[in-house]
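Before going further, learn to read the protein records used in this course. The integers have meaning only within a learned vocabulary of local backbone shapes. To see the layout at work, look at the sequence and tokens printed below.
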Amino acid sequence: RKRAGLARALVLDPQIILCDEPDSGLDPVRTAYISQLLIDINAQIDATILIVTHNINIARTIPDNIGMLFRKELVMFGPREQLLTSEQPVVKQFLSGDRFGPIGMSE
């Protein structure tokens, strides 16, 4: 279904493609397949692909640039490497999965 949805979007030759949680409901093998498909498509077309995801593995591999939202604010936007090495407490907590920090998931 996800491949078919992506194919339908590409037929229209869009300038922007929005992928909202492209790995939702997929096992790790299919997630890897969809991730590689998005990388390949991005290399072949002249469009921006905007991916909304909570999956840090997708965020580490697909995009050139990453934005992070926290409490309805864009707290960081820039090259993937900049986010992955960020010292911002919110970003560090998200990447590490730590329960303690500004995201507020501690008991």
Remarks:
- The CA atoms of residues 19 and 55 lie 13 Å apart.
- The first helix runs from residue 2 to 11.
